[in-house]
C-alpha cells in the first residue's frame, strides 16, 4: 500500500473530532495494508503516530480552506500545496479527495484549527511551521489577499500566538526586503549584541527539522522548516551586518 494510503487508512477510527469526520467521508477509499511483512513497522501506526497523522490531515484541510479564502483556488496555490508535501503523481488523486472536500467553502476551518491546536498545545514550533506552510500556499499566486491574511490571523489566534508572535511570523513572509529583521527574530532594535546572538542560536535550535520531526512534524514538511531557518539566518545576517558583528 502507498504511504498516503496508510496515512488515511490509519487515521480512520483513530482521529476524533472534525478531522476524524473529514476522514470518515473518504474512508471507503482506504484500508490499512494487510500484506506487510512480519516485523515490518507501519510508519503511520495510529498507536504511535496519531499526532503526525493529525498534522498531515490538518494541513490538507486548512491548506484547502486557505486556498479558498479569497474566493478562488488558483493552480499556483494547488501546486504550492503539492510542493509543501511533495505528493507523488500517482498519489494526487488520493490527496485530492480530502483537499476537494475541505475546500468547498471557508466555513468550519476554526474547528480543524482548534483540534490541531489542542493536539500540539505543548509544541508551539510545530504549530508555527504549520502556519508557515499556510503562508506558503497563500503567497503562491503572488497575491496576498486581505481575506487570506484575515484567515491566517484567525488561525494564529486559535493556535495561541499573540500579537508579537503574529507580527514576527508575518514579517518572515512579506519579502526579504520589506521585512524588519528584528521583528523576524522577535527582538527590539535596542537589544544587546549578547542577547541577539543568544536569541539567534535558540531560534535555529528550536526550528531544526530533526527536532520538529521528533515532535510530530511529518518529514514531508522539512522544506518549510528549512525555509524558516533560512529566513532566520537572513534576518540575523542583516542585523549583524548593521551592527558590525562578525
Your description of this structure?
- This protein is mostly helical and 246 residues long.
- The protein contains 13 helices and no strands.
Condensed summary:
The chain has 246 residues and is mainly alpha-helical. Helix content is 63%, strand content 0%. The chain has helices at 3-11, 17-25, 50-68, 75-85, 92-102, 109-119, 124-138, 146-158, 163-171, 181-185, 193-206, 209-214, 222-243.
What is the CATH level 1 assignment of the domain at 3-173? Mainly Alpha
CATH architecture of the domain at 3-173: Orthogonal Bundle
Q: Roughly what fraction of the amino acids lie in strands?
A: under 5%
Order of helices and strands: HHHHHHHHHHHHH
Largest sheet: none
Mean pLDDT reading: 78
Which structural class should the secondary elements be placed in?
A: mainly alpha
**Helix share bin:** 55-70%
Q: Which topology of the domain at 3-173 does CATH recognise?
A: TerB-like
Spatial separation of the terminal alpha carbons: 52 Å
Low-confidence stretches: 30-48
Radius of gyration: 19 Å
Say how many strands there are.
Answer: 0
Shape: globular
Number of DSSP helical runs? 13
Feature tags:
single chain; 246 residues; mainly alpha; TerB-like; 13 helices; 63% helix; 0% strand
Amino acid at each position: 500500500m502507498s504511504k498516503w494510503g496508510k496515512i488515511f487508512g490509519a487515521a480512520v477510527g483513530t482521529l476524533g473530532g472534525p478531522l476524524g469526520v473529514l476522514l470518515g467521508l473518504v474512508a471507503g477509499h482506504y484500508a490499512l495494508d494487510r500484506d506487510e511483512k512480519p516485523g515490518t513497522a507501519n510508519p503511520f501506526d495510529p498507536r504511535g503516530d496519531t499526532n503526525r497523522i493529525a498534522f498531515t490531515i490538518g494541513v490538507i484541510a486548512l491548506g484547502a480552506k486557505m486556498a479558498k479564502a479569497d474566493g478562488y483556488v488558483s493552480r499556483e496555490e494547488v501546486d504550492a500545496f503539492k510542493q509543501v508535501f511533495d505528493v507523488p503523481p500517482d498519489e494526487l488523486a488520493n490527496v485530492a479527495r480530502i483537499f476537494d472536500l475541505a475546500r468547498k467553502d471557508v466555513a468550519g476551518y476554526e474547528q480543524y484549527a482548534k483540534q490541531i491546536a489542542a493536539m500540539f498545545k505543548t509544541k508551539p514550533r510545530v504549530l508555527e511551521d504549520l502556519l508557515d506552510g499556510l503562508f506558503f500556499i497563500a503567497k503562491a499566486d503572488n497575491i496576498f489577499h486581505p481575506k487570506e491574511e484575515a484567515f491566517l490571523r484567525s488561525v494564529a489566534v486559535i493556535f495561541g500566538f499573540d500579537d508579537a508572535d503574529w507580527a514576527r511570523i508575518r514579517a518572515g513572509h512579506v519579502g526579504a526586503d520589506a521585512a524588519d529583521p528584528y521583528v523576524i527574530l522577535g527582538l527590539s532594535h535596542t537589544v544587546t549584541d549578547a542577547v541577539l546572538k543568544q536569541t539567534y542560536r535558540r531560534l535555529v535550535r528550536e526550528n531544526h527539522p530533526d527536532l520538529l520531526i521528533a515532535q510530530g512534524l511529518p518529514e514531508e514538511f522539512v522544506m518549510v522548516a528549512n525555509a524558516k531557518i533560512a529566513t532566520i539566518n537572513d534576518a540575523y545576517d542583516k542585523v549583524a551586518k548593521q551592527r558590525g558583528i562578525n
